What we know:
Helix content is about 35%, strand content about 20%. It contains 8 helices and 11 strands. Strands 4-5-3-6-7-8 form a 6-stranded mixed sheet, with helices on both faces. It has a 3-stranded antiparallel sheet with strand order 9-10-11, with no helix packed on it. A two-stranded antiparallel ribbon has the order 1-2. α6 packs across α7. Mean pLDDT is about 85; it is low at about 1-10 and about 330-334.
Amino acid sequence: MRDGSGEDNNVAPSVYSHVSRPGSHRYKNAKKGLPFNLMMIGESGLGRTTFLNTLCERTVVPPSEAPNPDQAHIAEPMQFKHYSVDMEEDGMKIILNIIDTPGFGNGTDNETCFNQIQEYLETQFDDVLAEENRIKRNPKFKDSRVHALLYFINPTGHSLREIDIELMRRLGSRANVIPVIARSDSLTPRELVLFKQRIMDDIAAYNIPVFNFPNSEDEDDEETVEENAELRAMMPFAVVGCEEVINEDGRPVRVRSYPWGVVQVDNDEHSDFDRLRYVLLNSHIGDLRDLTQNDIYELYRTEKLSGNTIASAAANDAASAQQSMSSQPRAVAV
């Protein structure tokens, strides 16, 4: 994750960042831009749109109109909405492709949503597999495999709900799942610490596969190993998004204003947003792409070519998860 030059290449990841971090892109020679495909999943009202605009530092998705109260009881079906943003981070051109999933979790039975998302992820793998098997490949083929999947967790302060556990368990073998606590400023610092611990305890108890910042013993230096350990300790990332910018001592600061004060989105003492942004668009963009290609896709490719479908495995996992959840006492999530 370092550039290997041995030089001090610290940069401010964003004009809003409060700290500088080591520049670590390995793909600066990608003249046309490095594609990075990011999927966002979470229930309505958790701030995915605001997060996306904050991540891209521009209005990618304009504010939506207020819903018609006469139709508030009607659950909209889940959709896949695509956005593409050209960005430049630390001298590296990035083509950020975002897949949002509005409507997820709005119904009482979310099995259809789970199946649709899983099918979407596997369709991208199938497209790559078909291209690999062509005698003459298409030089303009676009790889749309999802490199990172952000799952937005409702800040209940309790523990993971069944929808959280089932979604991450099912998709963990098809994408690099990164759990994030949405609207984390709704929790006190103490509540947030305890909530993070409960979530990680659940992830361990239910064997939920998430992106856990693995180290490469052959390639990673001591600094990278320490950084990954620090990032693992921060999980799940507690994020806050905003559209408001104020001037503080001559520099722009993104904040959420409340009667009791302000939350600075890019301040590490207030939110993990700046660190997560750096992970996605700088320090770990290569690792996320490599793991998608070398581990996740190769596993799917082996299953596909050997005729082993995931259906039976998913059914076994679901039964195991249900049995595990029913046998363990759980706090009631609001």
